[in-house]
Amino acid sequence: MSRQVEPGQTGVIPFGPSGHGLKARKLGLIAGSAEPIAVMPEDCAICRAEGLTARTSILVEAGDRQIVARLMRSTNDLVAEGDIGLSDEAWTRLGLSGGEPVNVRHPQPVPSLSALRKRVYGNRLAQADFANIMFDLVAGTYSDVHLASFVTACSAFPLDLDEMIALTQAMIGAGKRLTWHQPVIVDKHSVGGLPGNRTTPIIVSIVAALGLVIPKTSSRAITSPAGTADTMETLAPVDLDIEQIRDVVARENGCLVWGGAVDLSPADDIIIGVERVLDLDSAGQLVASVLSKKIAAGATHLVIDMPVGPTAKVRTLQAADELSFWLEAVAASFGVKIRILQGPGVQPIGRGIGPSLEARDVLAVLQQRNPPADLADRACHLAGALLELAEFAPLGGGAMLARNALESGRAWDKFQAICEAQGGLREPPVSAHRQVVLAPNAGMLGSIDNRCLAQLAKLAGAPASKAAGVELHCRLGDAVETGATLCTVHAESRGELDYAMQFYAGAGAIFGIEEP
Amino acid sequence: MSRQVEPGQTGVIPFGPSGHGLKARKLGLIAGSAEPIAVMPEDCAICRAEGLTARTSILVEAGDRQIVARLMRSTNDLVAEGDIGLSDEAWTRLGLSGGEPVNVRHPQPVPSLSALRKRVYGNRLAQADFANIMFDLVAGTYSDVHLASFVTACSAFPLDLDEMIALTQAMIGAGKRLTWHQPVIVDKHSVGGLPGNRTTPIIVSIVAALGLVIPKTSSRAITSPAGTADTMETLAPVDLDIEQIRDVVARENGCLVWGGAVDLSPADDIIIGVERVLDLDSAGQLVASVLSKKIAAGATHLVIDMPVGPTAKVRTLQAADELSFWLEAVAASFGVKIRILQGPGVQPIGRGIGPSLEARDVLAVLQQRNPPADLADRACHLAGALLELAEFAPLGGGAMLARNALESGRAWDKFQAICEAQGGLREPPVSAHRQVVLAPNAGMLGSIDNRCLAQLAKLAGAPASKAAGVELHCRLGDAVETGATLCTVHAESRGELDYAMQFYAGAGAIFGIEEP
């Protein structure tokens, strides 16, 4: 009781004694959420000494790395006193290999929390605010609760143009950015929501064959039965690092790889995860999501495929026009030339839904062997727009040029060359279990519920089961007889096939057959 | 490939085969968040068969109980194939004792998600919407992300009067409700933010001694160094069930118990947890929080203590008037008579901050042995308002009646009787480690930072360490000499004391001493 302490001059909260030397232990647990997990014994001495007994999140330090983790407490021998159990995500982000000493302490207040609160109360944010929020979000200092609040606030008060530009810039700044020597780098994006529609490998093959540079990085499926990376993976390796990507592009003008290794706009993936849980998707977030990825990838010329239909992502022409306006305005502010092609989004494009089935469609188009005409047409249309935008074709002449490249076999040659450069062309796998869906009555096929069809493909196992999915045998407007085959469901296991068929039986009319 | 499936007529998604008979295993893990945890082996057959491989949350069923749990995946032998590991929260909510078969399947869509989305987009919600949201929230079908979105939406677009009434009603309806035979049931609430201020045990003793019925249920600390239940627990048992509470109230007119066993407005505790993380507290949520708890407890007459000051919860007189308006309007709609006493909130009330130290203040006032005058005055003022509101005293005569009960020893007699009825009066514990904080210079004590002072008490171990906290030796306006004792920090362990003192050294001026 003799020491005298005088108040200091700073407002900084010191963080207790360092060097607890807790032993890090890998729990062997994938938490699968934004927040990694740390487990310590209930009522452990260090938690008490650090005043952490009532905390739900803590700062964990190993060497010069630190993360904010959700603190859980073990009530048995899961974690021993003096140890700290970490989820696989925590282990990876701390760069641990085993045996390193780890310290725990109070998390610092989230630096951008005041900016987040400002936005919740309806105030507009400046560039620096968005930059701080995206930095914190990518650094892992945002919990799910913070993320959800940010997404909600940006839906409650939609982003204005300045904010969209600022958020796009902030998302680019919070990740890596690719630079290329060539002055014109083309790229393509589909707003999505339409099953199938796997035009990207075809477009890349066409425009790269004609001399455009298109270093295409694609995502894996988030909510859909397949992403372009999932489909391409059935045809060639896609998990390339940045040096390998540069090599492929230098040799072939284009590539078709997974973007995950390149860390472009990592905030986008985090935000999308929360939007999905809340079923919120605002125009501003979508614009920043699309453009941050493309600009970070180095694109200077961008074509956007925007299917419009009642069960597509963009449901009305009015929504399509609004979204197009924002995309064009934000792209212009970054000096990116953009062209948006709205198109019909009432039924899948191509026959296959699922990685392997879509890959077969791509091969059919490139090899010109019984190609789905709608897929070939859409790919030529989009490739033509890219050729025109990059001034490789006169206005109105792009699609013809693209079709020539396809029909002459140049695109197929280029596709094979790209796959070889990425590690070798391979054959997509074939499903082990199949079941056909028959028409319960005769009539004209009047409608297809794209969302339910995608769900059917997912329940059959896509995209994790590469060969799983749905193969369509009908198109809108077809006259069908009772008992005609509408589609075939493909699965890799009997259980997945049964589950998908149960869903189909209960889902109501995926196929709307209008009796004459 | 021979079975034919015809589309059904319903839109309901069936939930796969039941009866997996997974073996439930207790992980020995307290998750400590809104979402209980379920762990299954990575890539387990049942997850694949059920299409759960990409899910982050699943429905877990045991008998007729079900919960939504966050799904995590074990990559080692933490959970064996055919087992499911559950956090303590999941175990308890499923009512498991061990060995029961458990099923997993897709969670049903959160039923109130569309109402939540409506609110996010700025639409007002009706009574039924709030009822559905509160039901889902208490049932555990809301994840942290949903909770954060709800709280954010109610801050972005503040609740209007109809919504406050609807939310209050919904929160009452989502928990238990106490009923009493007596027509007049009084209660008291403090809006908080001011350390110390432990008037409740004194008020209950006074008004119960004078014949009012006051079945007082209190909370434990959430963010403060002590809740009334924490303080009372150092003096008597507080963990009573509803029958025991009825017995005590029947005998003594009042009780001083923890409300946790009674399950009043459980949604309140869940919402408060998220508001704290986001540092959001809207007037509407506060009104619904306070009134739902009190109305569920059966109160008909309510006095509210509202300290106002720059570091209290309510910071300005304007905010106090606004909050008072909403409280009065919503209380009126439920037929509850209410009186709100705004008061100075610039410094702690009483000398002690922390469970045991505050209990000593309470005893000093009740026993009339060197009582802190401010605490006695505030308690008599509030008790007087209750007596007037319940027409036990004429307007303006309540405080005098209360003081008489205190000074005559009747309140002390009643307090002892209540404690005996609850299980026996006991002596608050005394701290093992103490350190004094001395004035660095001479002058007049011009300000106290209540938030930093509360933080100091918490870092010293309060409320988990009952004897920990801060004992104040000065009041605003005091002339202090250099080296005068400003306060004593109490702790139960040396580590906690050191940690608190480090914070004090870095926290800047908790005590503002103005040089003459």
TrEMBL record, chains A, B:
Its EC number is 2.4.2.4. One of its GO terms (cellular component) is cytosol. One of its GO terms (biological process) is pyrimidine nucleobase metabolic process. It catalyses: thymidine + phosphate = 2-deoxy-alpha-D-ribose 1-phosphate + thymine. GO terms for molecular function: 1,4-alpha-oligoglucan phosphorylase activity; thymidine phosphorylase activity. PROSITE patterns: THYMID_PHOSPHORYLASE. Pfam families: Glycos_trans_3N, Glycos_transf_3, PYNP_C. Coiled coil: none annotated. It is an enzyme of class 2 (transferase). HAMAP family: Thymid_phosp_2. This is Putative thymidine phosphorylase.
